[in-house]
Every structure is written in C-alpha cells, then in structure tokens.
Amino acid sequence: MPEPFALTEATGRLGPIAGDGEPGMPPRCAALSPMQEIALPQAIATMHRILAQAQTPAAISAALQQLGLAIAADRVYLFRNHPHPVTDAPLASLRAEWCRRGTRSQLQNLELQNLDYHSTMAQWYERLAAGEGLVNGIALGGLVQLGGRRPLRSRLVNPILLEDGLWGFLGFDWYGEGGVCIPQNQELLGIAASALGLAMTCQRTAARLESLQQRFEAELQQRTVKLQAAIAQLQREMADRRQAQSELRHSALHDRLTGLPNRTYWMELMGEMIAPANHSPPDGPPSEAPGPSIARPAPQPSAPVPPFAVLFVDIDRFQVINDSLGHDLGDELLVAVAHRLRRCLGEADVLARLGGDEFAILLPQARDRQGAEQVVQAIDHCLREPIALAGQEIYTSVSIGIALGPGGYLQEPERLLRDADLSMRQARKLGRSHHTISDRAEHDQLLAAMRLETDLRKAVSTLNAWDFDRADYISQPEDSQFYLCYQPIVDITQHRICAFEALIRWQHPVLGLVSPGRFIPIAEETDAIASLGLWTLYRACQQLRQWQDQLHAIHPNLPPLQMSVNLSCRQFARLDLLDSIKRVIETTAIDPSALKLEITESTIVGNADLAKSTLQTLQNMGIQLCLDDFGTGYSSLSYLHQLPLDTIKIDRAFIEALDRGPKNQDIVQAILTLADTLRLSVIAEGVETPDQLQTLRRMGCTYIQGYLFSKPVRAEAALQLLRSEYPMRSDLTAIAPPSP
Known about the structure:
- The chain is built from 22 helices and 24 strands.
- By secondary structure, the protein is of the alpha/beta class.
- A hairpin with a 2-residue loop joins β7 and β8.
- α11 (440-464) packs across α13 (528-554) and α13 packs parallel to α15.
- The termini are far apart.
C-alpha cells in the first residue's frame, strides 16, 4: 500500500501521515469496497466542479458531503485558523461541516470556536504546520467536544496549507464500535484537502479581489465625486472669474457714482470713431466691453469719418455747492445732473463723466455747429428747473465747450477732448451758463500758457532747493533761469540816484527773455510767486548791502542808498511774511530803513484791518512802505488815510498823459498836493521824455523813475552807473545808461 501523503497547495509537497503505528510505518486501514474506491475519485471530481463554480459556505458544505458519502465517514468538518486578538496565539474555529444522518451538527457549538492549539490540541499545530496529516493516535486526543456522547472510532486530519502558512485543517470522523476505518487511498483525501485549500485560496483571492474591487469602486466613486466637485468648483470659479473680469472691466470703464462711462471708455470710443480713417478693419468682429450696453457709433470701415461734435460740460459753482452742502449732497447733485443730461440726449449720443463735475458728450449725428448748439440749448432749458436735495431746491447751470470733428483730429483724437475742455474754460470766464466753440488760435495761446506754466514751475524748483541762511545763497545757481535787474529812482532836486527798484527777469532756455507781464500773473496763480518774491527780496537786500559798502568808501557823506522791492498779494497774505522779512534783514545786515516794500491796492482789498496791522508792524521795524500804481484803484484816498504809508508811486498811465492836456496835469498836481498834505513822498513812474521831466519838476515832484534816465539793468551795469554818475549832473537827458 502506498504511503499516505497530504498535498500542500503552496508548494505541491507531499507530507507523511502521522499515525498510531510504529515510527515510519503506515497506520492500520480498513479496506474499501470496489464501489467506494470508484466513489472517492468521483466525489473529488464532483467537489472540484462544485468549488469551481462557487466558494460559498453552501458550496463548501456540499463538497464536504461528497467526500463524506464517498468514504462512509460520519462527519466531515473544516476548521480555520486565526490569531488571538490579544496574544496573537494561533486559534482554530469550526467553519463548515457535513454530518451523516443520526450525527448531530456542532456548527452552533461555541466550544468549537476559538480553540487554543496549545491547551486543547497540544501537538496538532506543529505537525499540521509542518504539512503532516494526523490519523488516529494524537488525532483522537483533540476535539473531544466534536463527538459528543458517541465514541470516536477513527479520525483523519489533513492540513490545509496556503502561501502564507497553515490556513486550517480538514477532518474526517467515524463513530461507533469496531476497528479503525481509514480508507487506503489517503492520497486522494490529501488531494481533496488540497482542493479545499485551492478553493480557500480562490475564495480568499476572490474575497480580496472583491474587497479590492469594492475599495477600487469606492475610491473611484470618491474620486469621481471629488472630481465632479472639483469640476463644479472649477466651473464656479471660472464663472466667478468671468463675472469678476466683467465687473472689473465694467468698473474700469465706468464711473462708480453715476454709472456713466468714464474717461478711459471715452478715449477708447474716440479711437473707435476715428480709427476707420487711419487703419484697416481688424479680423473678426470688434470686442465689446462687458456690462450694460452703451450705444457706440460704428462708422463703415475705411469710409470717411462723418462730422460729429463733442461737448465738454462743467457744472458752474459746483465747488461752492459741494463745500456748503457737503460732499454727500454734492454727489447726489452730480447724479441728478447726469440724469438730466441723459434726458436731453438721443439714443445714439454718449454721455460720460470724466471726473469731478466734468462731463463729456459725443453727438455723432451733429453735423455742424447748429446741431451742437441745439443740444446745448436743450441742456440749458433742462437745467433751469431746480434740483431737490435734502429738502432744498438747488439751481445750477453748466458751462459748455464745443469741439467739432473730425477736422484735424484724425491723427490726434485726444486733442478733440482737450480743445473742448479749453473751450469750456473760455466759456466759464464769460460767466455762468455760457458756451463757446473751439477756436484753434485761442487754444494755441492757452496751450502756450500751459507750457509756460510748466516751465515756470520747473525753473522755480531750482530756487526752492536753496536756503538763504546758507552762505552761498547769494551765488547764482548754475541751472537758475532767473536774475535781477535794477531800475534807478532819481532825486531830481539833488541830482542823484537815491534808490533802485529790484525787478526779476526770466531767461527761458528756449524762448529767451520772457516778459514779466507774461510770467508774473502765472506765478501769482500758481503760488510760485512766494518763492520768487522771497528770492528777489534776499538778493536785492544782499546787493544793496554790497553797493552801500562800495559807495560809502567813495562818498562817505552821502545819504545811504535805498532798495525798493515789490510784495505780491500772495506774499502779503502768507503767515510767515514778517518772519521771512526779519530773517532777510538779519542775514544781509542792512539797515531796515534802506528797504522799501511796494504794495498795490489789490493787496489790501478784502481785509484792510489785517493789512493795516501787518503794515504797521513792518513800519515799526523801520521798513519804508510804498503804495504802488496809485490812482488806478477804487479807494486810494481812504487807504492813504487809514494805512501807515511813507510813499506813493503815481501810476505810469498818469505820467504818459501829461502831454495830452491840462486836465491830466491837474490830476497829477492834485496827487502831489494831497501827498504833501499827508506828508508822503511821491515817485513818478514811467518818465520817458524831457517834457514830462520838466512838467514834474515844475509841479514839485522830487523823485522820478523811468526810461528817460535808465532802463532796468543788471547789477554790474547799475554799479557802473553809480560810480560814473554819482553825484549826477543836472542834465539828466545827457545820461545814456546801457540796456539790460
């Protein structure tokens, strides 16, 4: 009889069956009938077919039944190993069973669950793990709970080995009296155990695959859900981004307060209006700005641009309304005016807010001046009715500048708006509710003035970098464009130069010498006059100090030379005026009585009390005070009575009129008589002819200033004049000083 073996699934090795005979000898076995010898292979084949179709508990029980019937066993059972949850020791539990009729099933017996090999089956684990089958002998000593009260006659236990070790075992029990009942072909039973091992492997593999499939499907589902969520989030973000871009572009092209197009939109629109005349049409349709649609005139590509008009609208006295009512109501007024302007326009017209209280209107259908003025009249009529704000009725009007296009604006569309702006400024000078049409000559003058203002600011900035407390302040900066000229004031009774008037000059690097009549008003408007005035005062006082020292060495007994310097309205209104003058006097170390400050009546108008206090302080400092351009204001006589003055200067207009009749001479004589009564000295300005000089001498005028003696000259020429003509001859006309 061949030696019994147990087939292992993992390696295919055959192990010996350990029995109750002598070592190395096979156990005693009962003989099988021919029918049983045929039935066992058939049962194994049937078992294979059952397990090949399914590895469910029912299929495993059916496979066990086939084996039990084939070898006439009373019980066929399957135990599975598993680790102890705490100690990790190997345990065995009953998982499947087949019982012959009359044999009680033990599947529900809890004592057959979690059996500890070391306590109940001491020698089983090592032999089974080594691949050895157990037959009778030690096999009978374990699993006593399985048989119940019936005596166990024989037992065969075959290990089930998988790739990771002992999975469990397959057992066969025979009950009752008699000898052992072990089939001779135990190799077939080993094959059956191996088949069960394969089935368990397949079952476990299938379970793993199913678990992996479930995990994969679950993970796939999770990832699908996450991906769908991510796609949905991405779609939301893209939609939000498109919305944000749309809102951002709309915000960039529209005014936040009124919702109207802004300056950027306007300039793009003007470019589109004029572009067809300069460029070929781009490929594809033109891009539209997102947001509320606004009518955009679209001339035919490559066709001549039809005439149109641009209006530049500015609310009159808006700053006054804004300051008096507050910025919130000012904003409400802007919105209300925007609504009214919109009501006056057609569907094709475009209204934009450029900023502040300025609006622009494009009239694409206004073919000429008359069409534009019709819209202007409609706007004036619409704004005549008051606007209700916070329980108040506000009357407002607008100044409008008109520019007609395309004209010469095809290459420079931005000039169209600029010219309309300049026209509006001209209209505003005419008063409220006016409009003007763009005039190129006037605009060129305004542009020249703007450029001159820019150049003036840059030139003055070089003076602001100098501090007259520094020793080198008197030196002329290399990049300075300003210098002083000095015009003599002559005492015709003493035949001498008694003073000079300091006059600033601007040598423009491109325009050359700029007339003071051009840049002084600009300096007054931009407050650059403060820097120019302080610089002039210091340099004049410094020059005076030098001349006094030089003349004292030549004529020590002559009265000291004086210097007249003009004070502008802006300078006179500065809070630091007195401190600045004190610093100049202290720095240059001149006698205050040698300094004469000239002011005009416009400097005093509006606050005579404050002017009187300031002038009194200056006079208390010892400074001489002169009222310039006397006779051209409205209340010169009252100023002479109220203000602490030392000198008046007769305006050149009266001096020029001396030769035109006795009435003009009477006016000058009256001024001289009044000044003598008030104990004021008089300077006649603008003396240019010997006849004017003789007339003034006859009237008793002491001091003259004008081209008859000298034009304003540079410091070097003035010093030469002082040295050569001091003291002067009586024949003033014989002197011919150099020109500046």
